Model the fold of this input.
Amino acid sequence: MNLAASIAQIWALTQKDLKILLRDRTGMIVLFAMPIMFILVMSVALQGMFDVGSADHPVKLLVVNLDQGALYLNQEEMHLGQAIVDALDGFDGLDIVTEIDGQPLTRERAEALIADGTYAMALVLPPDLTQQVIDAVSGSAPPAPITVTFITDPGASSQLTAPVLAASAATMNRTVAYAQAPYRIRLALEHAAAELPPEQRAWVAPIAKALIAELTTTYNLGDIGGESEIRIETETPASFQVEQLPTAVEQNVPGYAIFGVFFIVGVLASSILNEKETGTFRRLMAAPLPRSVLLLGKLLPYYLVNVIQVALMFAIGRLIFGMNLGHSPAAWLMITLATAATATGLGLLVAALGKTESQISGIATLLALTLAAIGGMMVPTFAMPPFMQQLAKISPHYWALQGYQDVIVRGLGWQAVLPETGVLLAFAVTFYAFAVWKFRFE
Amino acid sequence: MSPTILTALNLHKAYGPIQAVRGVDLHIQRGEIFGLLGPNGAGKTTLLHMLTGLIPPDQGEILFNGHLFTPEAMSLKATIGLVPQELALYPTLSAWDNLIFFGRIYGLRGRTLRHRVEAVLDLVSLRDRARDPIQTYSGGMKRRINIAAGLLHQPDILFLDEPTVGVDPQSRNAIFEAVEALNREGLTILYTTHYMEEAQRLCHRVAIMDEGRIIALDTPRRLIQEMGEGFIRVGVPADQQQAFVQHITPLMGVHDVIRQDGHLLVRLQEPLRTLPAIFQIATTHRIPITTLQILEPDLETVFLQLTGKALRE
Done:
């Protein structure tokens, strides 16, 4: 049996199964219409459904507090950065992390933790935060906005990051307003004193001093609001090449595409069982057709369908929603091919393990939903408890999603997706090896 | 005598503790229709699977045209055709697409492939329905396409595994005619069935299998001549069967009595001569005979004689 004959046989098997698949409308609906429906409808309909950020499931926020403090009116040191951290810590839905392994966070460490997916966002308070706040109100420096940096993983859902960002802004504004209140009162008194007769002005200075002392000590900087000069700049970790933060579609399409790809498991396994039951495998095995060629020919059409599925999902994202597809088609292709190999491998494994249609249907549905849920298709992994975040790594869905997010929302190239591709291929090889071991043609 | 196309020597196959085939020897002559008869569980299908390379024997060897045959012998596999007992077709595809696909698996291409597909469709008289999906066919039509798919590559030997199961009389006749036409053109056919009338009509020689062994092998005519003693099937009330058997067993010409489906099968040397004596005994002992059927010697009675079992069990 030469190679050309084997390739011709594989192609004949592939064409045959593609024809059968095309005529199986229900199967096509499962494979194509369902994930498309998810993308078109669920992206809009399920906005805000995630319940992370509640007291039971607080969102983790890294805070890099570089603020060195400054001397305040009463010549005591004030640390606005720490005041902001304390205020944020008071939120029920936030879990503030300022130290890792007993060491205060640095910006570089925070970026690395976001880049590797351990955390989703960080707030960086600059070293001169307090000084800038005092300078802004005292007029000792030209007016300039005080910049605080919010670093976020572009793969993180905006449904998660936006409330954290808003809460951080509100907390900082309030804290700064507290700090600026005594200064503003003193300025107001000084302005009022200027209107008084000269002999009365001397009375104002001690009154102002006593009032400020009272506000800063007894009343903890007073309770007076005011406009803030704080400006929050949102950035992504420096290792990412992101031109703009991803849209909801860019965040959702990869997840739904992966979800759809793994529905091939049940379709492929049922098709193999059907070939066994109807005797077509038996007829083919009596032909001059090596079993390896038969299996390859059986898997290839489903593999192709998977690749077409993913291409179609992303094409819809691009054409209908103007979705950004990243800078590296090669990286996208690597993840797509590896994900499809994993899905077909899992399909073969289910075919090897399932002896009846109901067994196959049950196993395939269980795997499709469980691996999707564990892998972060339904709830982002960073919103999961720590043990679930570790558990996510046993799901090929997780690695596929990380790969697509590297390409699309983090703007990375093919080198960056080598680890995800490698893990997916390791999954595929494991599935194929176990499947071939357990597989029976009869 | 025609040269031997297929030789099986001392084939054994076990599934766990069950010995499905135990020491089978076969020599199939080129150009003959060879029948493999036996009840369900006799080992026919296991033997067929070994002969077609689906499973390897535990022991023994198979030779095709003198060459050792194994499941990996692809060039030899190209010379055999298998028509499985199941309707091994893709129901949502048309007959044409099915046949094109199986033809391509055997290396047929282009015009040759199309001509072969047309030829086998003509043979099974289904060319006019070729473009319809298989799932719209009747059971008999599906069986005919099932056979056509095994003929595309013009094999030297065709294995037909129970090709008429569940088939209407019209399609059964069409299948018989196709088998006879193929054989006239020189095709060797190994035909497994548990319908003895099919074997008697079609087969030049038959092998009768039981419990994994071949227990008789010859032409149907010789088997019937040599072993085909008469049987009568007698209906006697259940509570009197034992007494009836005790009374008739000593009679001259009665070989033995087998209980089957509530009846008694009495094997006789010459039924017509022995019957009056049997009636006499029944009258004398007041044992009512409710039914009586004289079974003409055929392969069924040969099998009964050999095994004590009915072929359709």
Observations:
- Residues 44-51, 222-228 of chain A have pLDDT under 50 and may be disordered.
- Chain A has two domains: 3-46+245-438, 59-235.
- Chain A has 16 helices and nine strands.
